[in-house]
């Protein structure tokens, strides 16, 4: 059982990880590079001004000390990103696979798209509603606070979707709506209001590119996961048992 | 969703089997997600930097 789940999740993760890597390579990562160019420009020009700001507090993680390891730009950086994409995809695949098994909600070819929509809503759309996907160098609130809000929102939205999938009752729907709304009533940690060196159009393009990329990622993950599950289910049945 | 249950064989499993497989998968999945998307360690952060931004994880 675990072997089947693991195998299907892994194949789906490989497909989704590679597809998102391609989308990222052509449409998302170039925007990150552009932002980094503005960022280093800004650091050079306003180094002292930035140091006086809270902004400086959020910078060290990205200013990378000279002796801090980071992948070399070019092939190495792309390779690490592809690897990270596949591992992250495996994480998501195992999580939805686990939810599927624990709550007896099969992921199949026909339900794969529902899982894709659910994953996209819980892990991409709902967190992005409060925390717009940001580029390096943008002013941000405390990282831990944002991570907690992000995770809480994903959990609440996923829980809401699970409730509606599992229980067709008014109380479940009411609870689901409350769960989905709650993180947005609490509100995401707000970024300090300060000027940045790069154009607003860059940030806007990035936010929409990230959401498009996430949609593609989830559709590929859900549908290939479902297809693999169907394939393994048929293959594991004794000959003639499949009608 | 009921029609598809028989084709995946999910229902043929006992509750405890599903609990074990599901918990194992959840644990492994969360570890991978936290490692790529959240961990503060600078090697994990720098290696997965572009993934974090591109997938909308909170990053610096």
Question: Could you please describe the fold and organization of this structure?
Answer:
Chain A contains 8 helices and no strands. Chain A has one domain (2-235). In chain A, helix 5 (112-130) packs antiparallel against helix 6 (143-166) and helix 6 (143-166) packs antiparallel against helix 7 (170-186). Chain A has helices at residues 2-52, 55-58, 60-63, 75-102, 112-130, 143-166, 170-186, 200-235. Chain A is mainly alpha-helical and 243 residues long. With 60 residues, chain B is mainly alpha-helical. Chain B has a domain at 28-60. Chain B has helices spanning 2-8, 15-37, 42-47, 49-54. The radius of gyration of chain B is 17 Å and the shape is elongated. Chain B starts with a helix and ends in a 6-residue tail after the last helix.
Query: What is the CA-based Rg of chain A, rounded?
Result: 21 Å
Instruction: Point out poorly predicted stretches of chain B.
Output: 1-7
The percent range for helix content of chain A is over 70%
Summarize the main sheet of chain B: none
Number of discrete helical segments of chain A? 8
Helix and strand succession of chain B? HHHH
- Biggest beta sheet attributes of chain A: none
Largest interface: which pair? A-B, 73 and 49 residues
What average pLDDT do the residues of chain A reach?
A: 89
Approximate strand percentage of chain A? under 5%
User: What is the β-strand count of chain A?
Assistant: 0
Alpha-beta classification of chain A: mainly alpha
Distance between the termini of chain A: 22 Å
Oligomer: heterodimer
């Amino acid at each position: 059982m675990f072997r089947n789940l693991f195998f299907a999740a892994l194949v789906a993760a490989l497909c989704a990880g590679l597809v998102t890597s391609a989308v990222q390579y052509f449409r998302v990562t170039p925007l990150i590079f552009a932002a980094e160019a503005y960022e280093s420009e800004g650091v050079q020009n306003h180094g002292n001004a930035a140091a006086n700001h809270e902004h400086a507090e959020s910078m060290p993680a990205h200013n990378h000390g000279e002796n801090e390891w980071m992948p070399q730009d070019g092939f190495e950086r792309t390779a690490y990103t592809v690897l990270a994409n596949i591992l992250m995809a495996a994480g998501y695949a195992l999580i939805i696979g686990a939810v599927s098994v624990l709550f007896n909600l099969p992921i199949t070819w026909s339900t794969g798209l529902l899982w894709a929509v659910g994953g996209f809503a819980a892990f991409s759309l709902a967190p992005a509603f409060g925390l717009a996907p940001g580029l390096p160098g943008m002013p941000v609130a405390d990282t831990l606070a944002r991570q907690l809000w992000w995770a809480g929102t994903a959990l609440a939205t996923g829980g809401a979707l699970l409730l509606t999938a599992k229980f067709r009752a008014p109380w479940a729907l009411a609870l689901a709506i409350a769960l989905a709304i709650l993180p947005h009533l609490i509100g995401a940690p707000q970024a300090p209001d300060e000027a940045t060196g790069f154009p607003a159009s860059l940030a806007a393009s990035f936010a929409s590119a990230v959401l498009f990329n996430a949609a593609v990622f989830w559709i590929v993950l859900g549908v290939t996961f479902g297809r693999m599950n169907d394939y393994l289910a048929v293959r594991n049945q004794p000959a003639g048992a499949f009608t | 969703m009921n029609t598809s249950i028989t084709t995946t064989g999910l229902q043929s499993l006992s509750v405890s089997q599903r609990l074990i497989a599901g918990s194992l998968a959840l644990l492994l999945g969360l570890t991978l997600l936290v490692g790529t998307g959240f961990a503060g360690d600078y090697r994990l952060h720098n290696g997965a930097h572009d993934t974090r931004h591109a997938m909308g994880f909170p990053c610096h």
